[in-house]
Design a protein that fits this description.
- The protein has strands at about 1-5, 10-15, 20-30, 35-45, 50-55, 60, 65-75, 80-85, 90-95, 110-115, 120-125, 130-135, 150-155, 160-165, 170-175, 180-185.
- By secondary structure, it is mainly β.
- The protein folds into three domains: about 1-60, SH3 type barrels, CATH 2.30.30.30; about 65-125, Beta Barrel (OB fold (Dihydrolipoamide Acetyltransferase, E2P)), CATH 2.40.50.140; about 130-185, OB fold (Dihydrolipoamide Acetyltransferase, E2P), CATH 2.40.50.140.
Length: about 190
């Protein structure tokens, strides 16, 4: 058993008879009254996100997880196939396990959090950013750079993102997987 003071980003816990992963947390110590922890929790089974506040000293049941590296093989309908990079065992996970499946291309390495007790996959953590090639975008209009103007672009995985006007077809761009936004040209 852990206490509310041990809460950190990425931690998995049992809450309301479900396993939740901490997405965000904030320790608050007001001038009056006891300290508390504000959290944003994501259910690893349903993907539902909830806000919850834990009071100081509140006991929580932490779920022991192991991080394993898997290579993304291919999508098949609503399922995604992965291969363990150590023992080459393959697993199939539903689309709900992924935060940004539209940004994954074949061969990408992801981290799968597995419940240590019974080897049940809980969630898939993508890298912080991915580099993808722009396959379709309109040419930028000259002289339209007075503001941070953007235009739509389609990357090699089929995802649509907004990019600056100077990006052309064939350019490789770095995309933040948490927000799905353009970071820089590579």
């Amino acid at each position: 058993m852990a206490s509310s003071g041990d809460i950190r980003k990425g931690m998995c816990m049992v809450f309301n008879n479900d396993i939740y992963k901490v997405i965000e947390f904030l320790h608050v110590k007001p001038g009056k009254g006891p300290a508390f922890v504000r959290t944003k929790l994501k259910s690893v089974t349903s993907g539902r996100v909830i806000d919850n506040t834990f009071s100081a000293g509140n006991k929580i049941e932490e779920v022991r997880v192991e991080a394993r590296k898997y290579q993304f093989l291919y999508p098949e309908g609503e399922d995604f196939h992965f291969m363990n990079t150590e023992d080459y065992n393959q697993i199939t996970l539903p689309k709900d396990f992924l935060d940004a499946p539209q940004l994954m291309k074949e061969g990408d390495i992801v981290t799968v959090l597995v419940k240590a007790d019974d080897d049940t996959p809980l969630t898939v953590e993508m890298p912080l950013s991915v580099v993808l090639e722009v396959i379709e975008t309109e040419p930028g209009v000259r002289g339209n750079t007075a503001t941070n103007a953007t235009k739509p672009a389609t990357v090699e995985t089929g995802a649509k993102i907004m990019v600056p006007l100077f990006i052309n077809e064939g350019d490789k761009v770095k995309i933040d997987t948490e927000t799905g936004k353009y970071v820089e040209r590579m």
